[in-house]
Amino acid sequence: MTESWSERSVEEKESMGFAEDDGHTRTGTVWTATAHAITAIIGSGVLALPWSVAQMGWILGPFTLLACAIVTYYTANLLSDCYRTPDPIHGKRNHTYMDVVSSCLGPRNVFLCAIAQYALLWGTMVGYVITAATSMMAIDRSNCFHYKGRNAHCNTSGNLYLILFGIVELVLSQFPNLEKITVISLIAAAMSFAYSFISLFLCIFKLASNHTFQGTILGAKIGGTVSLSTKVWYAFQALGNIAFAYTYSMLLIEIQDTIKAPPPENKTMKRASLHGIGVTTIFYVSVGCIGYAAFGNKAPGNILTGFYEPFWLVDIANVAVIVHLIGAFQVYGQPIYAKYENYLSKKWPESVFFHKVYMLALPFCKPRAFRFTLCKLILRSAFVVLTILIAMMLPFFNAVVGLLGAIAFWPLTVHFPVSMYMAQAKIRRGQWQWVVLSFLSAIALLVSVLAAAGSVVDIIHRLKHVTMFKTKL
């Protein structure tokens, strides 16, 4: 019996001149895919988890962390089956999330997906600027307390730090594409693990020094400055924070596209998702719950801002956050640059502004010349400046993170994967699978709406009590 293409080994395919059915050689395994998945999931959202658990308490907090993990894993499996269409084993490959949407749902849904995906990308960039500035201010403040004492006046303004971060990103934004900043991306991934583990260690140390568990069954108590409505809006916002921490689906197809076959890519990706989300969930539950046990209902919005000693370790963690976000800003920004530059260059194919390449000599660097177009130089710089200005106007870490989670959770994590799976599997309206998946999508939509409402209300409330362009910690 003749072997099918998918049953041939990589060596056999390479001996025939190419490794896979589309001509690309893929070497990814379940372990490389797991590493990519963990790197994609773990990010600055982990810093908001103790605060999020504090808004819900000891029952709803851990339950929400686990529920989001289960939903993310389930929909990731559905999405894995859509990597090849119309058959998950022998169908045509889809190299990106939008390719899957196009193949399964058509061009109209591609437009809707693009709105959600690029809104999330840009919103995340704004959130990263705020987080980086917060970490810079935290370093300044912890050093102030260390040298002047805990009773010293150590309030610090973040505008200078926002501007410094923006200057670095202005330079990095001129790199032509993601391939040219691979080293920065790898360093950023390593830094995310560094500050995440330091945060967990600091929380464990504080919990041990307290000699008791903090926190309550229902979370933050009503009274004083916390009214019933404030508690409700904060709880909704916490939903968005937790959902944002598990953001993963929009990168899953790109990860799956690196996996070699056999076994089938969807089978390998499902194992990688189980390992990646499983490890991340254990870590998230540990940080969220131990952080809450250590700080109780007074858990800070960014857990690292709650520590001042040992100041050198706190500084290392905050530096790791800053380095991570410098690279992550570009990872999220480069797809946006590529999208509008492609569109504009096709719209005006003869324009010097978009097509003429200029060269600037660089005597001490390789390559020896910096190549650029006026479009890239001006529009990318303007985009970075606009992002920094928005971050200055909305310096609210938790509210912005909650809003990003709301934007990502329903459309990108649940709705599109569920809809694409039902289209590919030909699940008809009224079948039990259709009912279950539609109910899951409806619940996710409700969570996103509530999370968005809580975050928007908090942003509006804070804007009434803040001076524009006066970011303080």
TrEMBL record:
Highest taxon in the source lineage: Eukaryota
Keyword field contains Membrane: yes
UniProt keyword terms in alphabetical order: Amino-acid transport, Membrane, Transmembrane, Transmembrane helix, Transport
Pfam families: Aa_trans (PF01490)
Keyword Oxidoreductase: no
Annotated region (Disordered), positions in chain: 1-23
Record's GO cellular component terms: membrane
Record's subcellular location: Membrane
Record-annotated Amino acid transporter transmembrane domain positions: 26-460
Transmembrane region(s): 30-49, 56-76, 115-139, 159-175, 181-205, 273-295, 307-332, 382-412, 432-460
InterPro entries per the UniProt record, alphabetical: AA_transpt_TM
Biological processes per GO annotation: amino acid transport
The protein's name in its UniProt record: Amino acid transporter transmembrane domain-containing protein
Organism the protein comes from: Dendrobium nobile (Orchid)
